[in-house]
Input
Amino acid sequence: MYIPPAFRIEDAGKLAAFIQQHSFATLITHDGTAPFASHLPMLLRPGTGGHGTLVAHLARANPQWQHFASGSEVLAIFHGPHSYISPSWYQTGPAVPTWNYAAVHAYGVPVIISEPERVLALLRETVAAYESSFAQPWTGEQFPEFIGKLVQGIVAFEIPITRIEGKFKLGQNRPAADSQGVFAALSRSEDANDQALAQLMLAEGCVRENAS
Output
């Protein structure tokens, strides 16, 4: 990923938090002829390896897991908030339209998890992660035979992260007045994605909330 210095994020804790918050990823592999992509939730275990380990599963009918046999590095892309940026929001010029966004790329060589008990543990971990905010979390424990059959239809895997890149393109290269103009416009928007991008600008110290 092309990352100008102003947009590069290297803080390990910040990268881990971003992955955990935006855990629905795009997994990209190569079958020897062409790229292949799947969209799936991926959990991060930050305490393992230098950059943590991603864990996930694919449907066994999905041919992508067969690409893992090559031992080649794969890419998992985690997408954050993004939005079109109008030059009319800037105080200085001339300027052109752009698109601001946040993304993290994680690389590693996937390893298939074959032990049934580990696969089942991964499924439970995944469900628990996404059900944790519910008043009555679903566990699936009441359907053991059904869950057991489902386990046979998936391929679980882990990706020890060998390298990771973070890019938060938030207008850090613009004058402060321009950033404030962008923040104000995004904050006024009724689009939740625009508002999320504005809040990320604020969290990253790119703008001041009550600047006049």
Notes: The domain at 5-114+155-202 is CATH 2.30.110.10 (Pnp Oxidase; Chain A).
